[in-house]
Amino acid sequence: MFFRIGLLSFGGGLSGWVYREVVVLRRWMDEDEFMSGLALSQILPGANIANLSIYVGQKLYGLVGAAVTFIGLLSGPFFAVLALAGVYSAFKTVPYAEPAMDGIAAAAIGLLLIIVGRGARRATRSPQALIALLATFVGVGLLHLSLLLVVAVVGPLSVVAAWHRNAADAQ
Known about the structure:
By secondary structure, this protein is mostly helical. It is about 80% helix and about 0% strand.
């Protein structure tokens, strides 16, 4: 599955495709577990989709699963890029190449918006998560603060808030 995703896709929106395959179609994970993995993959260094593939593989089959999903994700594009490098200059002169790329980019943005919507819906389950979401949006999106700074401040505060909420729920 990750080989197919890696081979047949490029650009953004891959997390939406992985969500559909892993949660909706195959039911290998529930939505909460997937969204936790997606959040983790986004804060770790490296490509989000590569991190997500490692997370899914590790959750399903441990170290071997992580290696297989990662190699599967990257091996197809590696060889495809090598093959396309020789024909790229001829491809870009095709009259409808640029509009086709615009359409593909729009589809990728649509897939990404699906994940954003699901993440926002999940965040609205608790006031603490909603506050963390809004604080991150305001800090990064509106005030143009460093993402690293915002995560360094909001992250620990949201962990403390979740810990307090879980402690209160346990009583």
